[in-house]
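Sat 14:20. Reprocessing the chain from the morning session after the first attempt stalled halfway. Input below, unchanged.
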Amino acid sequence: MLYITHQVTHYPPELKRALMAVDGYLTLGMPREAREELDAIEPAQQHASPVIRARIRILLHRRKWRAAEALALEGSHRYPDENEFMVQRAFALHQQERGDEAVKVLLNAPDWIRRTGILHYNLACYEAQLGDIGTARQCIRAAIRINKAFRRNAKKDPDLQRLWN
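Finished this time. Tokens:
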């Protein structure tokens, strides 16, 4: 399923359709249209987890790092069992060149989140940017052990270039 629309099976069809449209707009590089689609969602659904995730993703596409970080923090308070908010917050902090804080966010993640490959992948990115190449290598190895697909991404990721030089 699409990035934003995963885990929305218990939501109304109108919300699913809107989230699919948002995902499509963002794939096409059209964040303004994506935001308009979200704004049209009925008020009762505006604080639903996938809507908040979509809003954060739009902010990230628009490079509104502070706003994305704040909304991701709010999302993690509303929905503490959803790891996406923590990952989005850490990414927004990283983009604000607050890598130490991004690392802390991910290191303070609950154990079940720490077993996900994306967490280790992002930690590798942040540690590489902070200059701790040894830790970054350990993190990327852990991510790849969990999910082999990360190997291909890691070779192309500019945040990880220091690992390959």
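The two ends are 36 Å apart (CA to CA).
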